[in-house]
TrEMBL record, chain A:
GO annotation, cellular component aspect: nucleus
Organism annotation: Rhynchospora pubera
Protein name: Transcription factor IBH1
Bilayer-crossing regions: none
Primary localization: nucleus
Nucleus recorded as keyword: yes
Subcellular location: Nucleus
A Pfam short name: IBH1_N
Automatic annotation (TrEMBL), chain B:
Family annotation (PANTHER family): BHLH TRANSCRIPTION FACTOR, STEROL REGULATORY ELEMENT-BINDING PROTEIN
UniProt organism field: Rhynchospora pubera
Extent of Low complexity compositional bias: 436-448
Compositionally biased region (Basic and acidic residues): 202-229, 237-246
Biased composition (Basic residues): 176-185
Keywords: Nucleus, Transcription, Transcription regulation
Record protein name field: BHLH transcription factor
Amino acid sequence: MQALHFLQALARIARAAPKPAHSARTRQIRHAAYASMAHSSRSSRRTWSRALLHRLRQRQRPGRLLTVRRRVRIVTPITSRPEEPARAETLRQLVPGGRGMEYCNLLEETADYVQCLRAQVQLMQTLLDAFSS
Amino acid sequence: MDRDLFSHIDTDLNSISYLSLNYDHFDSALSSIVSSPSAAPTPPGPNDSLVLRELIGRLGTICNNKSASVGAVDHSANTSCYSTPLSSPPKSSLHPLPNMNPNPNPMPFAPDPGFADRAARMPCFGGGPHMAMSGQLSRVSSSQSLMDAGMTGGVQLEGELPVRENGSGGRGANNGRKRKAGVKGKGKEASLASSGTVNSKISEEDQSAKRCRPDCKAGEKKGGTEEKNGNCSENNNGDRENKNDSDSNNANAKPVEPPKDYIHVRARRGQATDSHSLAERVRREKISERMKLLQDLVPGCNKVTGKAVMLDEIINYVQSLQRQVEFLSMKLATVNTPSDVNMDNLLQKDMPQACSGSMQQPLYRSAFSYPNQPQVAPLNSLLATNSIPNLGMQPSSNLPFDGFGNANPQIGGFWEDDLQSVVQMGFGQNQEAALSSQSFQGSGPSSSDMKIEL
């Protein structure tokens, strides 16, 4: 699912008018990579996948002043979580959607996120090798 | 030496261990503990002494280890060895206890007051609620019951003490924090509670709530202190929800577990004073369980122990993966420019290629005559060989089949009958037909375009 989505997105990007701007294509490919990760069958139920898609859509439309979607969740403020290690905040920033989660859920999401990231990296590496050979 | 005794039990345990923890000591010890009570319950005769001796010896060996699971093992071992006669036939064996309360037999427990004091102070000892109870009577009564059951429990327990002390010294660092906090409280009871909490924290057993319920039952029957009774009632209320969850978990994992869990409940008696600490303990166990999962995912994390360092490793790994994605996307952007036309072809050819490698090759070569075929073919083979195993996702390998099958009516005469058979094969394996069809519809028009081109 992940591979298929990514390949389709790549095809779409390639088919689109090949912009000379290298950075634009890079951004598009990166966007496609994260989108395919979020659309993976394994992770479609995950919090990070929804948050990632939300973030991607937000970036695509920079003119939105009002975010309609709000995650209504009563979570203890970040400052009052003394039992977590100090690096938990960094992890929250890394994993999409990590801010609203409790620590144990954050760990679970991280595991899934790492799995998808690894798969995506392997896929891109394989494609790169295939294209460059 | 003790390992020989329990080696045969280890295999049994592996089949019944309900917690997916990878503590070697924990598993082996727990297995021994769990299976020994199962063997012991009905005939409380000669088996018990052997079981108890084995358990105590096992505890001794485990106590000397410095792993975090030691506490759990000690805890459970301690619990089980005492719970065996008490909880497995819950009603029958517990009855004699109240009778013994008023006149504890001092013979095997001559140093009992000192023993209880030491037990209270030692964290690993404190895990055994019946030993570290604020009421020494309950402790004595438990040992009484054991003795009455025909075991030379007293002797064995005293022999256990020095071993325990050794173990407690090793784990003092872990428990010192909570132990001091407890000692500052209400003296012995606080220390008991805190040491119990520590043990609960260290012991990586889930279903602690489950265990608490029979513990409370046993405690009440033993006629423990009022505190214990109060705690037990509280625990019962708080435990029920947890118990249901853990029961459901148990039912899924091992149907045999629930009776065994009752044996372990007694370990929790001394520590869990309210539902809050229970929930906290469950939460801590969940967190540790997830950390183990992450440890398996992140390469090179096996040698690292401790949550802080592991968290750093995880963060570094996630950052490196994200950086790799950025870097690869940049490289793909540079590489992709000359291969615009190939992408469609690749997508069309890639799906069937993924399902069966060599069979499709001649078909493709005949159907499609692309100028840049040499570039495409290696990609096909690469994708067929690499992407599927790399991704390790069954659905992804099945999707091409479905998409292919769905595109069939559109492409029609494009594909030979051989492909049809391949598609049928893919359909048989597929589990996400709907999903793949939806995803593949997008490339349908492109396939028709290809047809026109050819």
